């Protein structure tokens, strides 16, 4: 992904803003648990850059289609993720002041949004993937998908004992 954006027209003028928009294949595939963004998948990102005292503040969002596997029923599904990008890029001459902070740096009058975009896409993914909020999962006995077969059940010893009790009860 080419995430480099020139800052030349901002001229380090505090308060100056510039809109940006990117549409780039993700490059290195992203993988988080059961979530996957293949390398050729296009990521869209847009937002505003604003020159502040020590650097450039980026406020935008990135979106991409994500392939996932449901953690309950193991079905593949996909969804569009939309994540916020909020990142400060500090001018190199302030580097010492920010040495201990988790910020990115302006380089050659440009910023590279790629790491920020990748991070925000990763952080936006759920810890538990569900194909739908009420996914019924798989039958623990035979692995049948209970979403497809809501009436699915197995006759077992517990059931027959209960039906025995029920008929005994109805006799009295
Ligand atoms: Zn599911
Ligand atoms: Zn079953």
Strand and helix map with partners:
Blueprint: E1 4-6, E2 17-25, E3 30-32, E4 35-37, E5 42-51, E6 55-69, E7 76-90, E8 104-105, E9 110-112, H1 114-123, H2 157-171
Residues 70, 72-73, 75, 130-131, 135 line the site of one zinc ion.
Rg from alpha-carbon coordinates:
26 Å
**What portion of the residues fall into strands of 2 or more residues?**
35-45%
Report the total helices: 2
Written as H for each helix and E for each strand, in order along the chain, the element string is EEEEEEEEEHH
The hetero molecules present are: zinc ion
Structural class: mainly beta
Helix content: 10-25%
Oligomeric nature of the chains? single chain
Largest sheet: 7 strands, mixed
Q: How many separate domains? A: 2
The overall pLDDT average reads 91
**Anisotropy-based shape:** elongated
In short:
The chain is built from two helices and nine strands.
Structure description:
This protein is mainly β. Helix content is 15%, strand content 37%. It is built from two helices and nine strands. The strands form two sheets. Strands 2, 3, 4, 5, 6, 7 and 8 form a seven-stranded mixed beta sheet that branches. Strands 1-9 form a two-stranded antiparallel ribbon. A hairpin with a 6-residue loop joins strand 6 and strand 7. The mean pLDDT is 91. It binds zinc ion (2 copies). One zinc ion binds at residues 70, 72-73, 75, 130-131, 135.
